[in-house]
Amino acid sequence: MRKLKITELNRISTEEFKEAKKLPLIVVLDNVRSQYNVGSVFRTSDAFRVEAIYLCGISATPPHQEIHKTALGAEDTVDWKYFKDTTIAINELKAAGYFIYSIEQVEGSVMLENLQLDATKKYAVVLGNEVKGVLQEVVNLSDGCIEIPQYGTKHSLNVSTTAGIVIWDFFKQMKAAL
């Protein structure tokens, strides 16, 4: 097997990305403190043509060196918006017809492997702070919560890893929307 050259990957340009149809998914970062995690979420969102990222609270915004280090330019392709308060972002999304899922371990959460999405609907997923998770007031505003099953000793995954798993699952179920 031969590794493909970058020129053989047939990636679209930034301009083509901006014009391309997007996955009807918005990723909300609720007080994510690591700029590297923010950058990683940008890069994953670019890979799967996520509609936008909402950066809330203490989450850093581009331009920033640490975001760029992991985003590798995806901060220039994926649309983003900043909100001082995550609840304002959630209320705006609800008003625009998005179904809101917080990624959190709560009573009654849906295991990701059991999640059934409707490709005709619009969704937002909320990823929380690396230590405290999604704020309870944001969980309260959510239409549901998704939990990633885990079988080891740790009770959580890194937020950028979680984003990758969740975005990939949404993409698999909703790619017909592209």
Describe, in plain words, how this protein is organized in 3D.
By secondary structure, the protein is α/β, with parallel strands linked by helices. It has one domain: SPOUT methyltransferase, trefoil knot domain (Alpha/beta knot, 3-Layer(aba) Sandwich), CATH 3.40.1280.10. 35% of the residues lie in helices and 22% in strands. The chain has a seven-stranded parallel sheet with strand order 3-2-1-6-4-7-5, with helices on both faces. Helix 2 (35-47) links the parallel strand 1 (23-30) and strand 2. Helix 2 (35-47) packs parallel to helix 3 (65-71) and helix 2 (35-47) packs parallel to helix 7 (159-174).
Radius of gyration, rounded?
A: 16 Å
Give the quaternary arrangement of the chains. single chain
Most strands sheet? 7 strands, parallel
CATH class: Alpha Beta
> Stretches where pLDDT falls below 50 for ≥5 residues?
none
Mean pLDDT: 96
In the sheet with the most strands, the strands line up as 3-2-1-6-4-7-5
Strand tally: 7
Sheet-strand content, in percent, reads: 15-25%
CATH fold-level assignment: Alpha/beta knot
Query: Helix/strand-derived class?
Result: alpha/beta
Helical residue percent band: 25-40%
| Gap between N and C termini | 31 Å
How many DSSP helices?
7
Give the full name of the CATH homologous superfamily. Answer: SPOUT methyltransferase, trefoil knot domain
CATH architecture title: 3-Layer(aba) Sandwich
Secondary-structure element series: HEHEHHEHEEEHEH
How many domain units? Answer: 1
Shape descriptor reads: globular
